[in-house]
């Protein structure tokens, strides 16, 4: 089983032809409300793949939070979620362009109130996992607590260091796997300019191995690169007609962790992750379009 320490957000997605200019108001006929937050999205992908999941996080004392917790319980997750008085459940505002690319603003709300003490307590109460997964949508103290707990208990630890925050040094040596997208990779490497080609991204991934022994950089429709103790790998993306790329990264991370938690090789785990990421771009929203085990693992997926 896998324990996810992370965020829960309600997402509001608007489809637009372009982003509003400074001072401009764009009018759209409607918005789609969906369940999001990197932590919960990755947990849902793991549950869809049939893994037992424990979720650790926080919601506000509001209806959105209550509904979200009920929903994840219905998916079979063991929930260790604090209700924070005076905070709102996290919110995401997503602009989705015609080609499916998205830009978002996230209001952390209760996610920002997750503490190291809450993490230690929840991880101690919960069943011992095969793998702990976290992201940067909860405070660094909480992320570090999750990494340290995993180290102390010799549990495989994975961080999807998204979004980029300046916590590279605090994460040193705590995680086995460090997964980022292009923007985040540049942020952690302290670089402004993206490499021109895959070889450049592989070099960047090698450099980020100072933070964790295994590094994955996802490159959207270009696929992903990996650098680890056994060498480097290039993971091509599946060809699809993307509708909305929200959640592709979360699906990729969830599927990668699902495969690693069940002792798959890194090569196979990355293939499964790429398959899951591509499938999630085929529908609107993050969680609704995430694939199930038969579509990601096994012969049917080949
Ligand atoms: P994020 O959403 O975190 O920025 P990416 O956009 O890099 O993450 O996507 C994560 C993974 O999902 C990619 O490495 C790729 O395997 C898959 N993916 C994303 N977008 C597409 C796409 N348009 N076509 C095929 N695969 C995609």
Automatic annotation (TrEMBL):
Q: Does the keyword Kinase apply?
A: yes
- Protein residues bound to ATP: 181, 218-223, 249-250
User: Which residues constitute the catalytic centre?
Assistant: 250
Task: Give the protein name, as stated in the record.
Answer: Ribokinase
Coiled-coil annotation reads none
Enzyme class (EC, first level): transferase
Q: In which pathway does it act?
A: Carbohydrate metabolism; D-ribose degradation; D-ribose 5-phosphate from beta-D-ribopyranose: step 2/2
Listed under catalytic activity are: D-ribose + ATP = D-ribose 5-phosphate + ADP + H(+)
* Protein role: Catalyzes the phosphorylation of ribose at O-5 in a reaction requiring ATP and magnesium. The resulting D-ribose-5-phosphate can then be used either for sythesis of nucleotides, histidine, and tryptophan, or as a component of the pentose phosphate pathway.
- Which residues take part in binding substrate? 9-11, 37-41, 137, 250
- GO BP of this protein: D-ribose catabolic process
Family per similarity comment: Belongs to the carbohydrate kinase PfkB family. Ribokinase subfamily. Belongs to the carbohydrate kinase pfkB family.
Protein residues bound to K(+): 244, 246, 280, 283, 285, 289
The Swiss-Prot or TrEMBL record lists the needed cofactor(s) as: Mg(2+)
Indicate the principal place this protein occupies in or around the cell: cytoplasm
Which Gene3D superfamilies does the record associate with it? 3.40.1190.20
The record ties this protein, via PROSITE patterns, to: PFKB_KINASES_1
């Amino acid at each position: 089983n896998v324990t996810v320490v992370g965020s829960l957000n309600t997402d509001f997605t608007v489809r637009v032809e372009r982003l509003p200019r400074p001072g401009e108001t764009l009018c759209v006929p409607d918005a789609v409300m969906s369940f999001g937050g990197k932590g919960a999205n990755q947990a849902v992908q793991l549950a869809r793949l049939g893994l037992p999941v424990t979720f650790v996080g926080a919601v506000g004392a509001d209806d959105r939070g209550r509904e979200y917790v009920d929903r994840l319980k219905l998916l079979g997750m063991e929930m260790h979620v604090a209700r924070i008085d005076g905070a709102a459940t996290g919110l995401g505002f997503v602009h989705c362009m015609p080609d499916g690319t998205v830009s978002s603003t996230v209001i952390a709300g209760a996610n920002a109130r997750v503490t190291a003490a809450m993490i230690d307590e929840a991880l101690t109460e919960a069943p011992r996992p095969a793998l702990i997964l976290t992201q940067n949508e909860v405070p660094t103290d909480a992320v570090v607590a999750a990494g340290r707990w995993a180290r102390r208990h010799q549990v495989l630890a994975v961080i999807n260091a998204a979004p980029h925050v300046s916590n590279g040094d605090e994460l040193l040596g705590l995680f086995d796997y460090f997964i980022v997208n292009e923007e985040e990779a540049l942020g952690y490497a302290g670089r402004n300019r993206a490499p021109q080609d895959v070889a450049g991204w592989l070099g960047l991934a090698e450099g980020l191995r100072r933070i964790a022994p295994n590094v994955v950089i996802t490159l959207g429709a270009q696929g992903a690169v990996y650098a680890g103790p056994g060498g480097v790998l290039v993971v091509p993306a599946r060809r699809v007609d993307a509708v909305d790329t929200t959640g592709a990264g979360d699906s990729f991370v969830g599927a990668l962790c699902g495969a690693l938690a069940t002792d798959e090789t890194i090569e196979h785990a990355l293939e499964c992750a790429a398959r899951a990421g591509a499938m999630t771009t085929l529908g609107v929203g993050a969680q609704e379009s995430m694939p199930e085990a038969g579509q990601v693992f096994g012969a049917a997926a080949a």
